[in-house]
């Protein structure tokens, strides 16, 4: 993810939203590319190596040609940090929505936002509660916009479980079982975002936010989970190999004394993310 500082007004937020979406869809972050390259160098299975090689060629071509690296350009999910010293004289949410509309036609992006019941497509990736914008107040006078396009293949195999406090020891099994059931559906090698604690909805948000972290920086617990997942042998594209997941990233939050929410948000190999900072 990269930072770009610009003057802030309605139009600059619109333009920056288009730009950050363009980068997210056409340029995979350096940490993600490095993780895939590392997996390729370690892999011994011939088919798995070929799949990883193809992924890397796909990433290179997308950047060179300036086109989306995947036909499923996903649902736009934003994490926005607003400095407490900022005073916005415009509708920030509407500016981001307009940026999504423009990005859909200009990049272009596949229109994915549909009514949940009628399935009518809005045609511009906006609609009820779409794009999803998560706001957080922070120190300073900057506006940080981070986007994570989320495709359906990986989202559909994500899950959440309201565990009991006595089931802490079963979290690892829950992660492994979820990845096993997902198999090749989420286009592995995957990234696993794990949210532990919070509330029902809070755990899911933590799991998704975890995917924004540097995928090369994992603690001992995360590395233990990653090893367990890779022992499944599902491999790239579900055809076998040493690398089923490239990273397991965990975010935690305090929760109610009587509950233990655990959410797993799976991301495909294209862990797309980009950011822009305005002031």
What is the topology?
Layout: H1 10-26, H2 30-42, H3 46-65, E1 75-83, H4 92-106, E2 132-138, E3 143-150, H5 152-155, E4 159-163, H6 171-182, E5 190-197, H7 200-210, H8 220-230, E6 245-253, E7 260-267, E8 274-278
- Taking pLDDT < 50 over at least 5 consecutive residues as the criterion, the unreliable ranges are none
Mean pLDDT across all amino acids: 96
**What oligomerization state is this entry in?**
single chain
Looking across the biggest beta sheet, what order are the strands in? 2-1-3-8
Q: What form results from the Cα inertia axes? A: globular
Number-wise, the strands total 8
Percentage beta strand: 15-25%
Proportion of helical residues: 25-40%
The number of helical runs is 8
Q: How would a textbook summarize the main sheet?
A: 4 strands, mixed
Radius of gyration (Å): 19 Å
What structural category arises from helix and sheet content?
A: alpha/beta
Span of the ends, CA to CA: 18 Å
- What is the N-to-C order of secondary-structure elements (H for helix, E for strand)? HHHEHEEHEHEHHEEE
């Amino acid at each position: 993810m990269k930072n770009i500082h610009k003057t802030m007004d309605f139009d600059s937020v619109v333009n920056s939203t288009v730009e950050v979406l363009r980068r997210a869809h056409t340029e995979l972050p350096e940490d993600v590319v490095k993780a895939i390259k590392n997996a390729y160098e370690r892999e011994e299975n011939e088919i798995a190596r070929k799949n990883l090689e193809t992924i890397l060629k796909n990433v290179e071509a997308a950047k060179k040609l300036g086109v989306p690296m995947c036909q499923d350009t996903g649902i736009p999910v934003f994490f926005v940090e607003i400095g407490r010293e900022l005073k916005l004289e415009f509708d920030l949410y509407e500016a981001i929505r307009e940026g999504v509309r423009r990005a859909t036609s200009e990049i272009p992006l596949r229109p994915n936002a549909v009514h949940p019941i009628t399935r009518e497509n809005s045609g511009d990736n906006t609609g009820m509660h779409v794009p999803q914008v998560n706001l957080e107040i922070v120190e300073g006078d900057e506006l940080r916009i981070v986007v994570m396009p989320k495709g359906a293949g990986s989202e559909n195999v994500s899950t959440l479980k309201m565990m009991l406090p006595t089931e802490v020891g079963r979290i690892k099994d829950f992660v492994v079982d979820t990845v096993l059931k997902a198999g090749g559906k989420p286009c592995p090698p995957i990234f696993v975002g794990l949210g532990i604690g919070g509330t029902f909805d809070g755990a899911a948000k933590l799991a998704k936010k975890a995917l924004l972290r540097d995928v090369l920086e994992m603690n001992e617990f995360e590395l233990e989970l990653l090893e367990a997942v890779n022992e499944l042998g599902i491999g790239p594209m579900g055809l076998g190999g040493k690398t089923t997941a490239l990273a397991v990233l965990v975010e935690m939050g305090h929760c109610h004394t009587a509950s233990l929410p655990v959410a797993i948000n799976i991301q495909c190999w294209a862990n797309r993310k980009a950011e822009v900072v305005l002031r």
